[in-house]
Each structure stands twice: as structure tokens, then as C-alpha cells.
Amino acid sequence: MVTIGIVGAGLRGRLFAEALQSQPDVTVVGLAEPSAKVAEDARDATGLPVTASHSELLEKFDPDAVIVATPDFAHRQIAVDVAEAGKHLLIEKPVATTSDDAQAIAAAVHRAGVRCLVGFENRWNPHVVQAKEAMGSVGEPITASATLSNSFFVPTTMLSWAAQSSPAWFLMPHTVDLVLWLTGGNPVSVSAVGSRGVLAKRGIDTWDVVHALLTFDDGSTATLSSAWTLPDAGDGIVDFRFQVIGTEGSVTADLSHQGLTVVSDKYRSAWPVSGRIGRSQVGPAVWMVQDFAAGLVDGGDLGPGIDHGVLVTEIICAIERSITTGQSVSLSH
Fold this sequence. Notes:
alpha/beta; 7-stranded mixed β-sheet; 6-stranded parallel β-sheet; 11 helices; 15 strands; 26% strand; globular
């Protein structure tokens, strides 16, 4: 039996708790959440105890593993404390939003010898998995592109902490991981541009749009684009597309709605889906956390680890530096 605690009792924390309820040989012992209102909602939604801090969660329940589902910028202290307590980790992407924080978490994980999964959930998206399997048929990668954007709803309504994030931090970890996983490329430099001002007028002072060009050591490239400014009047809150062109073929996908679009006054399509169909929880985030728990039970592979998570954070940091300086930024790893 593996026991798991969850730090962060918002939408993601509650999703993970519910996804693990029927997982064989797994027990979620409780959640941690500093917000009294969010904690109360989580108790009502999950029926689980909720402590006021991760330290109290560790002391009271002594779980085998902890899921860190807090806002992106709030991972460091929690993850370091959890690792130093000898607990395995699932950390939501990005592992951190500064290089120093990411390196500190990685050092703690390696010192403790604990297992760690960084939550790049598209590795569990069936279409992405099929794309990965198809890569062997398209030859050597020449170039890749990926667009992942949200409507205004995400920064203005869904995320209370959007001003402390950006399209680069909230969305590009997914696409950086995607192109690295599909191509197997080793990135050596980043050039990026961005624009801001539209969200600032709505009281959220962050980037509206970010575009990045990654160059790999074999001369191949990848272009990434993310925006937080899609119209809310559209048919969903996510625009997600990617393509890899190789010497012998290409792989192209539009994952915005997974082939299903519903438009009405009472419903808006949204993907990636992580919710309930009938009595079953479905979607990449659900399957990721269930796979994490199963890997802890049977010792199997967990998926992308802490060092890969650090690399993705370093790339996003380089994207930010390039936007700020107007210069290409070299990557060293």
C-alpha cells in the first residue's frame, strides 16, 4: 500500500485526489491548503482531511509520496522539504520558475534519493503518444512547431495568480517538453520575442503573447507560440496544435478539442479534458497521476524526471532573457 498526500487543494489538487480514489493499493491520506475557503471546499468535495500547511501534512500523516499542486512559483520550499523528508514526489510543471529554485529542488531530490515525476501530462495524451510512436517513420527531424494558447478566461478568471505567471510559464513548459520528447533534440540556443499591454489594461501585468525559436545541436529548429489573449467568444479556452517535419515525412496534430466541438450558451468545449465521463475520471492529468501511483506501487517507470524538469525551466528562463535583452541566449546543460 502506498500513501499519498497532496499539497494544494484547488482544482488540480482535488482532481488528483479523486483520480486516485479507486487506484489499487493507493490511499490519499489528506491535502494541505493555506486558504481556509479553498480548504473547506476541498473537504466538502473530497471528504479528505485538509491541513493548513505541507509541514503539518507530513507530520500528521507521514505519507510515502506527495503531489505538489500549488501555483508554479510556490514549489521550491514544499518540494525541498518533502524530498528531505524522504518522500517521493510528483511536481506539477514547471518544476519551478527560476533556475535557482529548480536547481535547489533537483539537489534535494538527488541527495535524498527519492523518485520524482514532473507533470508534463501530454506524455499521457493518446494522440501525443501515437505521434511519438510515428516519429520513427518520418526520418531525421528538420523542424517542429507548436502552438498552445488560452482565451482571456484563463488569466482573468481561472488563475488568481496570473500576474505572477505568463503564457511562457503556464503554457510553454508543455510545448518545450513536447518538442524535446518527440524530436529527441538537444537545444543549444533560444531566441524569443513577446508583447504585452492588453492584459495589463485588465489589471494583469504580464506577457500577452510569447514566440520562441529553439535551435538544436544538429541544426534543426522548433518554433513555439503561446498567448493568453484568445477571444472568450470562441468555442473553447485552448488552442493546441503541433507539427514535426522530418526528412522522410511529418506528424501533424490539432489537439484543441480532440475532434469534438460543442458550442452552446450553456457549454464550452475545453481540452485537455480532465474530468468525469460516467463514473470514470479521464484525461491526461488523470492518467498521469494514476500512472505515478502505479509506478510507486510496482517500482515501474514514472515518466519525465527532475533533471528533465530543470532543463525545461532553464529553457523558459532563457526565453524570458531573450525577450528582455533582444538577444539570442545560449543554453548550457
